[in-house]
Amino acid sequence: MFPTKRLAQGGFFRRSADELGRLSKIAWNTETLHTPTKPYSILNFENESEVKACKTMADRAVGGFSTASLDFEPADPSTNTPSHARFHGTISTKLPENWRVERTGYAAFRNQDRGLWLFGRLFWDVDPYSYLALRIKSDGRRYTVNVQSDSIVETDIHQHRLYTKHHRVRDAEDHNDNPESLAELYPEGMPAALSDVPPQSTILASSTSTTTSGGTGWETVLLPFNSFVRTNHGYVIEPQTSLMRQRIKSIGIGLTDRVEGPFDLRIHKIWATNGMGEAEHEEEVRICGADALPIDEGVRTGWTEEPAPKPEREQRQQQEQRSKEKGLKGLKGEWDE
């Protein structure tokens, strides 16, 4: 078989054409000269092929008993439910007979290697963006978002807890971790981004009820790229290094809370963004209902225009309003402080 034929069968030329087309659009729109205002799609699970292109992992690989599946779920127009991926299974902390295995109770999924294109391996470049956005429907369990870049240490993973409105805060008796194991995992103390108690800055809606009037259960979560924590095999690594945003090779979600029982997480899309723009807001409202994020002013201006001077009283009122916001502007301000 000729090399060109083998590359064509693997989608090499299609990937190259898609990436060149994307880069050409960026250059044509001069997006490199200012903050991008359009979202950068990473994983769109409305496409069944993207669901099938992901891989699942569980402790069964070492003899454990946890299970993990990622299935494509078609759209349901009657409830405005979009096509999406369903990450589900069961967590078990039962140990196998293999005496070398001391800990079980995990499941995860991620995209597989994106392959090659004309200039080498294909990565996601999210450097111009501030947030990783996920539109999800959660059962409230303590999921973790895992991002892997083309770093020097190949097994490094940057992580952030997937805080949602339904996030269940860990009770004292609702876990199997003892103080010694926690100290081993987090020798410098538990990072805020991995804490079981959601930081106020990550709560993007004021609702705490799972039956909010007008809600659909779907919500969009924004996680700042600069708050992800560097880990290796579940351990926080020092010194901490920033996520290499220019060369992201995999993104996925894991469940390591070690609470026995079923889990069920729905994922519609994962993308990089600088906020919620007008073009995306219609879809946001249609899917998320009352829990939809508001249009963010930063997207409309691109955070590049200098605001005109305003009266002192108006500035003070805006500062008070900003401190109460739960949308992207409030989130951005709190994380930057």
TrEMBL record:
This is NADH:ubiquinone oxidoreductase intermediate-associated protein 30 domain-containing protein. Residues 44-168, 212-267 form the NADH:ubiquinone oxidoreductase intermediate-associated protein domain. InterPro entries: Galactose-bd-like_sf (IPR008979), NADH-UbQ_OxRdtase-assoc_prot30 (IPR013857), NDUFAF1 (IPR039131). One of its GO terms (biological process) is mitochondrial electron transport, NADH to ubiquinone. Signal peptide: none annotated. Keywords: Chaperone, Mitochondrion. One of its GO terms (molecular function) is unfolded protein binding. Pfam families: CIA30. Residues 307-337 have a biased composition (Basic and acidic residues). Its main location: mitochondrion. One of its GO terms (cellular component) is mitochondrion. It is found in: Mitochondrion. Belongs to the CIA30 family. Residues 296-337 are annotated as: Disordered.
